[in-house]
Structures are given as C-alpha cells and as structure tokens.
Amino acid sequence: MSASLFVVQLFNGLQLGLLLFLVAAGLTLVFGVMDFINLAHGVQYMLGAYLAVMAYGFTGNFFLSVLLALLASLLFGLVLELLVFRHLYGRDHLEQVLATFGIIMLLNQGVKLLWGAAPLNMPIPDLLSGSVPLLEGLRYPVYRFAIIGAGVLVAAGLYLFVTSTRVGMLVRAGATNAAMVSALGVDIKRLFTVVFGFGAMLAGFAGVMVAPILSVEPGMGDQILILAFVVIVIGGIGSIRGAFLAAVLVGVIDTLGRSFTTDVLRFFLSPTTARVIGPALASMSIYLLMAVVLAIRPAGLFPAKGRA
Amino acid sequence: MPGARRGNPVAAPSGPRALSFDQRLAAGLFVLLALLPLLSRGIASSYLLLVGERLVIFAIAALSLELLIGAGGLVSFGHAAFLGIGAYAAGIVASHGHGSLAIALPAALAASAAFALMTGAIAVRTRGVYFIMITLAFAQMAFFIATSLAPYGGDDGLTWPTRTQVLGRPILKDQLTFFYVCLTLLIATYLGVGRLIASRFGRVLRGLKDNETRMQAIGFRPYFYRLTAYVIAGTLCGLAGFLLGNQAEFVSPAYMHWQRSGELIIMVLLGGTGTLYGPMLGALALLLLEEALSRLTEHWKVMLGPALVLIALFASGGIAGAIAAWRRRRRTPARLAHTLPRVARHLFGVGLKASRCWRREGRRLLLRPAHRLRRGAQAARAACEPAKTALGRALEALPPLAERAVKTTVVRWWRR
Questions:
Q1: What does pTM read for this prediction?
Q2: Which of B137, B144, B413 sits opposite A291 (nearest CB)?
Q3: What is the pLDDT of residue B139?
Q4: What CATH number did the domain enclosing A244 receive?
C-alpha cells in the first residue's frame, strides 16, 4: 500500500467520479424536474461511446468524432423524448420503469445486432497520448488527466448554467415545484425537452470520453446506470451540487475500496478471511454508503424538493 | 347487525359462496396449468414440463411482488434478491449434506425473511423513488456477496448435490411430482395472499397506499405494517427461489441480477396490478413470450423491448386492465354476437348461389372456351355481388367499434 499507488488510485477515483457526475447530472435533472425514472439513461451513455467509435471510423479524427457523437447523442435523446418519454411524464413510476426497461432491452440488443457483441476499441489521439510524471517514479496518462479536466470544466459550466442563466433558473425552479413553474406561464414541456436532450448529451459525452480507455460493448451502460442512481440518491434527487459531491465521493470510495479493502482487512483478520471478504466488501461499499445515508437522511444529502 | 363490521369487503357475499369473476379466472388458470402434463405426455414431454415449472415458480414470485406493489404501493426493484437468497440458502445447506426438506426449506425461508427484515427496516423508511433505489441497492449488495462466495462457487454459481429430499427419499426428483408440488404451492400462495390482502392487515396496507397521512391520523403506524408486508413478500419470494433452485439443481448470482428484478416488475405490470390473477398471467405471458421469441430469433429482445414500451404507453392496466375494460364494455361481444351470424348467413348464401350458378352454367362453360371465359367472368361477378354486400354489411356493423378504438388511441397519443 505505497503512497504512489494511493495517489494513482485517488486520481482514478476522481476520474470515475467525474464521469459518474456527467451521467448523474442528466439523470438527476430528469428525475428532479420531471419526476421521471429514466432507466434508459445508461443506454445513452453506451450509445455515446458507440457513436464515437462509428464517427471515428468515418472521419479518423478524434475531436471531430467527439463533436459528431455529441450531436448525434443530443439528436437521439430528443427523438426518444418526442416518441416515448413525453407521453410518460406525470404517469405512474411503474409505467416509466416498464417503458425505459423496454428501451434498455431494445438498444442493448440493437447495438449487438448492428456492431456485434465483441467489444470495440477507439485509439487515444496523439495529442493526448503519453503520460506525465506525477511523483518520483510515478507517471499518469495524459488522457486520464484530460478526462478529469473535461469533467471539471463541464461541471463548472453546468454550475454556472444552472445558477446564473434564465433557463438554469427555470430548471432549478422546476426541480423544486414544477406545477408552480407551469402556473407562472412557463412552457414546461419545452423546458422538459431541453433538459432531457441536454441530459442525454451529457451521458453521451461521458460515453465518448471513456470510449478510448474502456472497451465499448453492449451492456456497458447498465453498471454505470446503477452507480449513477446511487449517486443521485445519495446526493438528493434534483440537486446538481449533491450529484457532484456524491459522484466524487462514490467514485473515490469505489476505486479506493477495490484496491485497498483487502489490504486493510488484513490488519484485523487472517489473510484467507480477508481475501474472501475483501472483494465482497469492496463491491458493496458504495451501496453500504447509500444505505447509511438513506437511513440517516431519507431524502439524500441535499434534497431539492421543497418539503410539503 | 352484530359482526357486520368484520364483514370482508373483498370476499364474496356469505351463504354458498359464489366465486367472483377474478377468482373464477384464477381457478381456470390453475385448471389449465394442472392439465399441462396431460398435454406434455404427447409432445416433447419433459421440455414442456420444465417450461411449466418455470411458469408456476415465477407466478409465485410475481404474486409475492404484487403483495408489495399492488397492495402496499411499495415498488421493490430488488425482489430478485430473494429468489437468489432462497436458492442459495437451500443450496448451501444441501452442499453440507443437509438436503432434506425439513432443513433446506426452513433455511431458505428463514434466510429470505432475515434479509427482508434487515433491509426492509431501512428501506421501508423511504418513499417512492427512494424506495425503488434502496431496494435496488440492497439487491446489488446481495448479488456481490453471492459473487464473492468463493467456497460456494462464487461467480460460477453453486451446483446442488441433489434435489431436496423428502423424508430421505428423492420424491421431488420426479418431474411430474415436482410440477404438482409447485402448482400446489402456487395455489396456496394465491389463496394466502388473497386472504392477506382482504384481511384487516391488508386493508390497513391498502389504506396506507391511498392516504398515509389519514391512516396515521386515525392511529396506525405505517412503518410496522409496511415492514411486515415486506418480510412476508420476501419470504414468499424466497420460497419461489427455493423451488427455482430445486428445478435447476443449481444457483448462481445471476438469479439476483437487477435485470431479473426488472423482469419481476414487468410480470406484475404486464399482468396488471390490483388483482391476483393479473401478476400470474403476467408471469405466464412474459415467460411464454420470451420462449416463443427466442425460438424465432436470437435477437428476441429487439422485439420484446418495443413491445414493453407500447404496453407502457397504451395498455397501462396490463392484461387485467384489458380484461376489466372488456367486461365494462359488454356491448362489444353483444355486437359481435349480432354481426357474426349475419356474416355467416351471407357467406353461406354466396356459396349456395355460386354452386347453383356452376351447376347451371358449368357444363356449357367447359365446352366452349371463349364463351366459358365470358360466362365465367359474369358468374364470378354475380357471385361477387352478394359477397360484396355481405362484406359491406359486416363492415358496416363492425367499424364503429374499430374506428372508435383507433380514434381514441390516436387522439390520446397526440393529446399527451
């Protein structure tokens, strides 16, 4: 358990946290503003990655393909909203779960049908390849720094957008009390569409960013979807600030837990027991965190809804 | 009237108890299932029986979830965890050489009940979306615990040494016996859950779903009622898991995968909440649909997915809702009963005319080809005429229904 490994894992955790934030931000807004459970959000992340790979195949240019994939994700999100989700606002959560579960099935299998079940890869662009020295004898890939940087930039931009623009103000108001906003003469449906498309684009962006470092495969969105749900539940539904803090927390705890739980347990338990319990405890750690948070604060850390 | 207040609002009136429509439907379903082995004698016997066992077992699981969703309004997104826990508990006990019913079944039930009690104690404090998410989180925990159970197979799953033995004998090994045991348990579950929902406890639970504040105001504590319902449902689902493990003589973490929980919810929704036959029908429908589609193509999910979306959009009551709507609109079958004989009579008339025409003209037609063509065309037109009117009349009688159905659907779609 050397210090350099710890630093590396800390950065990895931060990177995972920021990616989670990109996915969770859209999810928490859709959840908070429209009271809509979008299980299909993880699929949009997956689709972002696939679109990036496809665009890269066409253009051969990383940055151009990122741009194309973003536009395509946005478009796809809007189409989904228009065709399906628009008709489910204000309906029972159960029906939303049913419909979005159906979309997960369709898209996961559709992706398999179109691109095959084998994982795809996307090369890291030359500009961002290589690594930089961090400490003595410790180098960290530039691309991962780029992900962290992009995540921080988007988070900051989102924060500015939500706190100091008119649309952002409406989004916050909508998350607190959508009916009241509608009564004040705001076209809430259009606001929903904008938020939804935007959320889909953010999830797609996260997918695009990880395309070069993870294998792009069907079902890659499912795992991150559940993590994102954990994040927004811990952070408090509808709260961007809560989502950011919870995402970083979850990312860091998950990553550090996976690398160090077994070692830490060895201080207290016999090596064999530690080896058995360690991995289980590590994969459970964030769910434990969530259970503890919900047991203490049933509405998350920063609940956005006004208490009735 | 003494004792009137204890009268049961759901059960049928007293006297020689008449079965309600719902109960008759469920009874019909059970009879059909019970007849399944007869059918399977003829065709691919054991395969059909295997499918039947799965149907029955998942119907039990769906019923237990219905107790939570339909009666309690508690949408559990982690119900599959109990399937896995029931199967794992019995399997682990069996792998230590205690594969008898007297030990394995209580172990499965106790393990699921304990898990339900522990997680429910926290989960039931939350509401709505938070409840959905926290049950999901607990199921994920159970999933990861199962994957790390290295002594019991870990990721690969645990193969049971044997099916559960009854009094030291492998009675359940026989397919037919096992099927009927499952079916009996399903019927028992159906009756039990039905009684539970109709009881005072069930009424409190439903009251809490409708208006928690009011129930609190008249002195009920939501927490304990909900927790009890959660534990009962979890235990029942553990029973289903025990059966599922017995059927496969195997259990793996995949039993607890979150998509499996999603499938359980889909079964309940597809069938329609608020009734007991609904979830059972939903389990049947989903499993049969999967079975049929997966034979059609490897990519059956591409078809099932959109079907689920359409159901969510247009048929939100599920199968039970459709049946209820059909029962409300008695006019539809009445009209059909009116129309069908008329259509049949017309078609019969057409056939009669055509045959007479043929007998009159047939020989001449055969003799002279040119003439034959002309006369043939004439005869055909003549034969067509009554068919056309028959069709017209039939269409006249049918369309208001179809038209209205289409119109309302389209209008609803666009108004939304």
A1: 0.78
A2: B137
A3: 92
A4: 1.10.3470
